Amino acid sequence: MAEPSLALTPQHVVGWDVGGAHIKACVSRDGQVLDVVQWPCPLWQGLQHLHSVLADAQRRWPALWQAQQVLTMTGEMTDLFPDRQQGVQAISDAMAAALAAPGSPGAGAHAGCEGTPLRLFAGPGQWRSVDQAGTHWADIASANWLATAHHAARQFGDGVLVDIGSTTTDLIGFADGRVTLQGRSDVGRLASGELVYQGVVRTPLCALGPRVRWQGQTLNLMNEFFATSADVHRLLGLLPAEHDQHPAADNGAKTAAATRTRLARMIGLDARDGDDADWLALAEHWRQAQVAEIGGQLQRLLAVQPLRPGAVVVSAGCGDFLLPAVLAAAGVTADGGVPVRPYGQHLAPQPAGPGAAAPRDIARWAQVAAPAVAVALLWQQEHG
Length: 384
Description:
Blueprint: E1 13-18, E2 22-29, E3 32-40, H1 48-60, E4 68-73, H2 84-99, E5 118-121, E6 127-128, H3 137-140, H4 144-156, E7 159-164, E8 169-175, E9 178-180, H5 186-192, E10 195-196, E11 211-214, E12 217-220, H6 229-235, H7 256-265, H8 276-304, E13 312-316, H9 323-329, E14 340-342, H10 343-346, H11 359-368, H12 370-383
Parallel strand pairs: 1-4, 4-5, 7-13, 13-14
Antiparallel strand pairs: 1-2, 2-3, 5-6, 7-8, 8-9, 8-10, 11-12
């Protein structure tokens, strides 16, 4: 989307979702979403990438420091940090320093939150200051999915959130307006299937299964970082270019020819060893493998917490194009009476009238940046 000119005031709320590969942000006021953006940010390579994105944000939104800032994160688990506690604190300190009022004691420093209206999401109704980050790190760490699910639960009451992102997929049930959890931490959610560590952009293809079908043969894969899920969905025409933000595995082009070359490496071939139909069939094999895995984990979740009459499926993430196939794999269909409610359309209200952003732009980016939208709107709901 084109960068707006939006000078912020104390009446604005900016929601942040700081991940290991992207930073997402939402500007809201009076319960309405005014702008949403996602920046690529390879945080594992150093905090300078976070600082660069925050500089971009300050150019996009003049007087950014005046707004109330609320933060959720997953970036604390990147290998930049020795442990998650230090990661939570380092990210919180960096955000507080960058967002502090000019000339305030906290501006440009890493010593605390003085001068910075920044609060950290630690669960429904729980907002921590930066100087509490180290003490409450376990509640703050990797809680972005909880913000989205809690927001959805408030709106719809009963259902399941399916957020298929660039790197991971979150499958979160909710009932009676509350999130229902089998696991709260990443390790607990990996055990329950509520966290599926697959996405439509950054997942190495060797993670999607040990073997593939190629021209009537079953082949073992090369377990190398030769190609990613972005190559599969790009070649199939499913992945929008605006969400294909990270370099390819070989840092090469993202043309169809270069994509076929990367897929060929996975099975010890060159692109010339097959025709276009062969490579499309191979990509389709991997798409089906990813759908089967995510659908199977959703089926696990629904076996424990079946969808009740009136329940909905809330979709989110840049991989929402997989949702119909995932629901079918899990035995859930819209025809069976379970409606799908895209997060960006149903949970990101937008202002109307002259000067308002195009509704499709806001809805599209809110769909991708749902946790950033959720923390901004939850804060406003809870604090007026």
